[in-house]
Design a protein that fits this description.
Elements (H helix, E strand, L loop, with lengths): L1 H19 L2 E3 L2 E3 L7 H10 L6 E8 L5 H9 L2 E7 L3 E7 L4 H6 L2 E5 L9 H4 L13 E7 L6 H10 L3 E4 L7 E7 L3 H5 L6 E4 L5 E2 L10 H5 L15 E6 L13 E4 L6 H11 L16 E6 L2 H4 L1 H8 L1 E6 L1 E2 L12 H12 L4 E4 L31
Parallel strand pairs: 12-14, 12-15, 13-14, 15-17
Antiparallel strand pairs: 1-2, 3-5, 3-6, 4-5, 7-9, 7-10, 8-9, 11-16
Length: 386
């Protein structure tokens, strides 16, 4: 019996060790073979395609490299970029990969991602969502590129490849919007400077239901002398991304900056009123922060212009009662917009984004029970938003 238990423990240890070598990607998992040996590294150095003198690859380590090991790698031309679980990173490599440095830092495998591994599984199988097709035979996509390559270089290389660039709005986050022939998805993914490719997200859609009484906003707004908290939003600048020009409504007079080209719309008025309505028309319907200043912007425009609004108006929080892909298959998906939101958390540390979770809470998304797996993907799935 003791021998059987020992065998079981050995097998369990082996299986856990094997699992720990499986790299997790959006396209699925795979197990790179250990190849930190002279012939493999020599071959990589000879064959790897380069952009601006850099090769791009991934390295799996036996453990997370220490700060000293990361510094050693960097001083030898290897910069760690994004983490891939477990114990792996995408990397930028200047010059040849030095075998002795890899070994000293605990590297086990050096590998380049295939085009299929740079996208979600359904996209790799040729499933193109309808919203990404604006012109028959083409597909609108977003790509990301490494932070060690300039957007100018990437744009130049894409134009050389006869690719239409639709938008550079997110180039500061290393994301570009393209239009390509539907048959070129794998070809574009294969470009050495392309980290990831996905269908371009669809237009934003409003999300909102009810609010105020049950959350005791009145107690928060009441003065301290009257037993409240004295919190009314005075001096706070809030960005609201929605679908309405609110300047015609009396509850916002003198307290908003209008950057919203949308017409007057009930959803946007409702949402902005929930946040900051003064209660001038009806005291019962005051917002949570009735003395705050509002920057009104159409949907995700408040995110795209966040740096400007933080700099010009000291915006500290945004409210976003919208989503883009409302579909069980996409719920919880971390995509390039999620990544942009997370990068803004580092770039704009005094700004917080708040998103509605969606209106799908009563849905059934198989194989989960009712109400599970119903938080939207994209914006809502970022790690540094509420």
């Amino acid at each position: 019996m003791k021998h059987n238990r020992l065998l079981l423990l050995v097998l369990l240890s082996l299986s856990l060790n094997l699992f720990s070598q499986t790299v997790q990607l959006r396209s699925g998992s795979f197990q790179p073979g250990a190849n930190v040996r002279k012939e493999s590294i020599d071959s990589f150095n000879k064959m790897a395609a380069r952009t601006d003198g850099q090769a791009f690859a991934a390295i799996q380590f036996s453990r997370i490299p220490t700060a000293a090991e990361q510094k050693l790698l960097l001083s030898n031309g290897i910069q760690l970029l994004d983490y891939l679980p477990p114990n792996s990173y995408t990397v930028s490599i200047k010059g040849d990969v030095p075998l002795n440095i890899l070994r000293a830092s605990g590297a086990k495998a050096v590998f380049q991602l295939s085009p299929r591994q740079k996208m979600q599984d359904y996209f790799a199988k040729g499933v193109i969502p309808s919203w990404a097709v604006k012109i028959q035979g083409t597909v609108d996509v977003w790509i990301s590129f490494p932070k060690t390559v300039s957007s100018g270089t990437v744009i130049s290389k894409l134009k050389e490849a006869n690719v239409d660039i639709l938008s550079e709005d997110h180039k500061q986050y290393n994301v570009l919007a393209l239009r390509i022939a539907a048959g070129r998805i794998a070809e574009i993914a294969a470009l050495p400077f392309v980290e990831y490719i996905q269908p371009a997200p669809p237009e934003d859609k409003p999300l909102n239901y009810n609010s105020r009484v049950g959350s005791r906003a009145t107690a928060l707004n009441a003065s301290i002398a009257n037993g409240g908290r004295g919190l009314n939003g005075e001096g706070v600048v809030i960005g609201v991304g929605d679908n309405a020009d609110i300047q015609a409504h009396a509850d916002f007079t003198g307290r908003f900056v209008n950057r919203n080209p949308s017409p007057f719309n009930a959803h946007g008025v409702h949402v902005t009123g929930t946040i900051a309505g003064a209660g001038n028309i009806d005291e019962r319907y005051r917002g949570y922060a009735p003395k705050s200043t509002i920057i009104s912007q159409a949907y995700s425009g408040v995110l795209d212009n966040a740096a400007t609004y933080v700099n010009d108006y000291d915006m500290v929080i945004t409210n976003n009662s919208y989503g883009n892909i409302i579909d069980c298959e996409y719920h919880g998906t971390y995509d390039l917009y999620s990544r942009i939101m997370d990068q803004q958390a580092f770039d704009l540390p005094n700004l917080l984004h708040v998103f509605s979770a969606g209106n799908s809470g009563s849905s059934t998304c198989a194989p989960y029970p009712q109400g599970f797996h119903t938080v939207l993907g994209s914006y809502q799935t970022a790690k540094n938003v509420i």
